[in-house]
């Protein structure tokens, strides 16, 4: 599949969008892989490609955290964490993106969208997903206030220390991704609305 990255696309980023040929081979491969998987090249990867090798390293960290076939936590748990983190950070791109992914993971697109708008208004969340959403919100907004009691609450859900730390990874890497997309003012993909 051909990947078209125009020299400058003011409609998707406030900074220059590099051409595919300018990028390191590892990043080119990541973009081609994502394009093949989704059937289109998402604006977020086109916009942050400006980081070159740094972006490739970031993607090596980010992408496996939300791979449905990897991870210590179930995929829906990781999507709850990513979606709530993005919503709490006010990242419209990531919120829209993960509303759809969460909806697929939960088997309910309306529920995914409602969580992305404000999880606190979603009565149907399972106790597990509510606890994970509350943890994501707290770590995002008030990291210094996360207490031993919060960790114990996660343990009561059945999470072991490695799973708790994976949750922290998801929340933290999405906080970083949110800052990239917010700063760049990445335009949401048309696919989010169709």
TrEMBL record:
<protein>
    <submittedName>
        <fullName>Peroxidase-related enzyme</fullName>
    </submittedName>
</protein>
<dbReference type="InterPro" id="IPR029032">
    <property type="entry name" value="AhpD-like"/>
</dbReference>
<keyword id="KW-0560">Oxidoreductase</keyword>
<dbReference type="InterPro" id="IPR010195">
    <property type="entry name" value="Uncharacterised_peroxidase-rel"/>
</dbReference>
<dbReference type="GO" id="GO:0004601">
    <property type="term" value="F:peroxidase activity"/>
</dbReference>
<keyword id="KW-0575">Peroxidase</keyword>
């Amino acid at each position: 599949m051909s990947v078209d990255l125009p020299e400058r696309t003011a409609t998707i980023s406030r900074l220059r969008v590099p051409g595919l040929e300018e990028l390191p081979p590892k990043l080119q491969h990541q973009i081609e892989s994502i394009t093949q998987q989704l059937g289109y090249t998402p604006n977020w990867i086109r916009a942050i490609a400006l980081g070159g090798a740094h972006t490739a390293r970031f993607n090596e960290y980010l992408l496996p955290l939300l791979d449905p076939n990897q991870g210590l936590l179930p995929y829906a748990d990781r999507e709850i964490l990513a979606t709530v983190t993005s919503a709490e950070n006010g990242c419209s791109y990531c919120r829209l993106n993960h509303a759809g992914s969460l909806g697929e993971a939960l088997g309910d697109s309306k529920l995914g969208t409602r969580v992305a708008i404000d999880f606190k208004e979603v009565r149907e969340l399972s106790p597990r997903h509510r606890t994970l959403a509350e943890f994501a919100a707290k770590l995002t907004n008030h990291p210094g206030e996360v207490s031993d009691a919060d960790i114990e609450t996660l343990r009561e859900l059945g999470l072991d220390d490695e799973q708790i730390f994976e949750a922290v990874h998801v929340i933290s890497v999405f906080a970083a991704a949110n800052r990239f997309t917010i700063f760049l003012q990445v335009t949401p993909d048309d696919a989010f609305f169709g």
